[in-house]
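Continued from yesterday's entry.
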Amino acid sequence: MNILLVEDQDDSRKTLSRLIAMRGHKVTQVATAEEAERAMATETFPFLILDWMLPGKSGIDLCRELRARQDGDEMFILLVTGKTDRADLEMALEAGGNDYLTKPIDLSLLNVRLAVAERQIRDLTERNQARVALQQSARTLTDILENTTDSFFALDYAWRFTYVNPEAESSFGRSRKELLGGELWQKFPELRGTTFEKNYRRVMAEQAPIEFEACDPSGTKWFEVHAYPSGGGVSAFFRDVTERKRAEDDRLTKGKIESLGTLAGGIAHDLNNILTVISGNIGLAQLEAPVEEKNLLGCLAKASQAAQEAA
């Protein structure tokens, strides 16, 4: 571990440095707060040991300044002091010190303090690494959502918008500035009582994802929606599938027309077969009818003509 030791007394600084190095740590030694600041400008130190009483800026003032930095919570600070008054020791902790060590330094107590610091620094390093990884994942996810061709929005438990990507802005016809923090049902009251409301509330209640297609309240656009529980609220991807629905309707209509044509053709074919049989029977009746039965022959002739015209 890289440790910065800030101690203005040479003997004390050398002794502390030697004892710390015996535990396998690399020690950088400086005598003033100003030297410490210059060292920290070029190197990272997860562990700092600061003497309270330093020439110029004191160790406790340096501790306060370090804690005020953006990365101030990423270091372990051990304050070393000859003060033993309880109020002074409380001041050391209030200034941001993780721990303190009183002079004259007891070797066994120093080892205990170092062991505690090592364990806490390991935990702190792991938390910082996890935080950095989480931040990177969040940035990556945001980049994906900002550039996806699908519309996406996120709502909290109170149905308030917490995120709206550019595609959703376009689909909603409203800017994210206008939507963020606003309640879904107030921004879009026309959604109440629709399939959208029913399914979003179902996701919230059942904490289970759902996919559905629905027409917007205006009746002009169809949307495919993938909604799922997220952070106690609801998040949803959606896309305009109006053209696809129209194409499906066109194919369905065309299929119905083709089916009707096929049915009509089949009926006509069957009818022709029947008419052929009828025409044949009329022909046989004409051949067998007596010549003197003029009325019968006349009726058969009309029937034959009608069958031919129907065919």
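--- second protein ---
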Amino acid sequence: MAPTAAYARAIVAASASNPSFMHHIVRRSLAHPNSTQQVTLGVIAIYVVVIALLWNLPYVRWSLWPFKMLTIAFHEFGHAMAACLTGGRVKSISLDPREGGVTHMQGGITAITLPAGYLGSSFIGALLIFCGFDIVASKVASIVLGVCFLLTLWWARRDWLTILTVLGAVGLLVACWFIKHAEPLRFVVLFLGVMSALYSAWDICDDLILRKVNESDASVFAQRYGGSSQCWGIFWCFISIAFMAVSIVAGLAAFSESFAEQEDDSKNFIPT
């Protein structure tokens, strides 16, 4: 640890005397990711492919059900927070593995609350991807997730599927804290991040291409404010992809530690 600390102090001293030095270091880390970052990028790519296949293949898509419920919970949490921030009131949140989620609310600005589901889950997913580059950051993310899940439980009322899904997610996150100094937590956070960041793409594919029976946020938005549901859905999808791209670039720039260094840091942050 001493050489690493000395190296870090040398970088801080160099960047203080020469601001362009840190800019050079960041550019270099983006252009030439280290082995740990390469593993993370590879895992993200694998997650994208696997989730896309499992989401759309008829006989295996059930395997994503627990994680899909969590992603839908993020989606509904986005609606709920937007309603609260625009003067509305949330009555309840319910999740359904076939029909998706429903947020019952009063008031609020619909021009904000409708897209807040897709964009909110995408933003949460992007933050999780960013945190998934580092173990300590993943620990922080899991704590924030726990708070979000507790709020979702409060709004869930007597919807037992939502309650059990959220409690299962909390149990998974807690269990990961106690395995190899929370190293698996990083990959769970990454998985949830990728799934949530691209939820708009997965769900829009269901709604607009596979033509699900239930009405989508994009179709309701189009009915109220004009345009087509396809255009709004694709527009939100592009924003989601942009969120994800920014989170990956930020993760590469912020977290360059090796697996061993991350594990050492994790031992000093709420050790387990």
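Residues 229-254 form the longest helix (26 residues). The longest strand covers residues 89-96. Will compare against the first tomorrow.
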